[in-house]
Amino acid sequence: MFRIGRGFALASPALLLTLILGFAPLAVVVVWSFWAWDPATYWIRPDLSLAAYAQIGEVGRWWVIVTSLFKAALAALACLAVGYPAALAVHFVASRRMALVLIGAFTVPFFTSYLIRAFSWRLVLGRTGLINDWLMQAGIISEPLDWLLFSDFAVMIGLIASYLPFVIFPLLLALRRVEPSFLAAAQDMGAGFLRTLVTIIIPLTKPGIFAGFLFVFVMSAGSSTEVQMLGGAGASMISIMINDVMRVVNFPLAFAISTVVLVALIGAVLLGNARFGLTRLFEDF
Amino acid sequence: MAIGIDLHGVSRVFGAVTALAPLDLAIRAGEFFTLLGSSGSGKSTLIRIIGGFDRPTTGSVAFDGSDVTHLPANRRNCNTVFQDLALFPHMTVAQNVAYGLRTRGESRTQAESKVRDALQLVDLAGFEGRNIAHLSGGQRQRVALARSLVLEPGLLLLDEPLTGLDERLRQQMRDEFGRLHRKIGATFILVTHNQDEAMSLSDRMAIMHRGGVEQVGTPDEILNRPANEFVARFIGLESIITPESIERAGTDLRVQIAGQSFTLADYARDDLPAKVAIRPDRITLSPDGAGLPLVIEEIRFRGLHYDCRLRGPDGVTLGAEIASDAIPEGLEPGAQVRADLHRGALIPVLA
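YS: structure for the whole thing
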């Protein structure tokens, strides 16, 4: 048994790092978002101004934030739709050995840089890419499909491919709460697979579902590479917009956008925890 | 209502391992039947096949004469209380018990009143809204029972449900099973490795060993006429000896052990047994007097009785249970004693 004090001592390096490396810059971002832009010095000066927040409303910036969050949520849902059956298969169907192979297969794409991963989708989805080639050879289409690449569709594919493993691991963790005997008991009382899924497996894995959703949602909301490599002309995401604003050294605006997104994400976490009990994911089994 | 079960040539092979050798077994409708065996004896495999959670490699399973071999568990009129109970942790007591009813499509109000009755039946009235995690071991046990019984199955399977309970609770729940069986009248099949449970509950029982059935019979038949040495040892008759001679004397047998003659009453079979077992609870020890001359090897205090190990001149060993208040003075390892065998102490071991 650890005494509380000793437990904190063990965690203190990690806590300190998190505070210094994580929270300190965030605090600065939030504070500076209220500072004013000074054209004379090309720098910012202390102030308590909401000018930057007002600028978010200009030239459709808020629309980029909303669509970005919407796309991120869509990507997260798509990852869950693909990842949930995969996690079920790894947990219930696969042998130990097979489970290891499958989990490995989900991880291997991470061995290459995300830039290369995004770029490789160009080779698959492009006008002369693999898919158009196959479809034309098979005689299904006569003209290459244009909407495959440089489109929201391509961005979505890129996001799903990049972040799929981040739903699978929390789901696998959550599935450990589902004892095989629960499934046998449900079947014993007359439930078929679908009813067992809806009444037993999904309710018990809710924390994992939410954790997976959150991982993909947050990372997709902050993604820029996939959008730059695969998105159409004028496609924007929050991070690209921030980049553009930074390029014209409008720091308060960049920080204001970040603060709005930060608040939105924290809100999502708190809401999700209240609704789905994220903390239960880490309870003893 | 109660279901009779017929197993014909049922076997189960996992890869190179034969978990169940082909066996025939008939379980009568309304019977309390026990599958008794140690782990690896095939008893759990057999109950999984009866419940529909596994298919036999060969053979057929029939409920009331109709073949159910390929019917999955969710379509058999039979329910199981699992070893780990498998209560759903995200549901209240009432939701757990109502699960099967709701799956069947019964209305909420109808289910509610049945749940109330089922909880009443297992002495848990008023527990509807409780959280499963906050129940004691015995209460969880009762919820699991109620969850199965509320569906009014013709056959209830109990897969070692008493494992993991402390001794007091175990006896209490054991008696509860007996009470519920008499009250409901369904066929009960209990899987256990505990012979006390089997002996005190069963109408009939099957002793299983290495994927086969060694003997099927009433507890009385199995205790007094064990089919072979394995069965005798399994039900606690450890002292098995080969007498110098066994011969008939009317309806009795005359058994010669260490030069002395003992009577085994009411032996009706045509063939004579090769060996006899000696019940440890039908022996008295005295410093001198009648009986077999033996040496005490070991004495262990067990509370209400002493366990004694005794050795004879020709290497015969005997176990004896002597009541704590009936142990003679000066009895200690190395002492010479006489062991007198009472009526019923000798049990024929048929093979």
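YS: worth flagging: Chain B has a mean pLDDT of 91.
IM: good catch. Also The radius of gyration of chain B is 24 Å.
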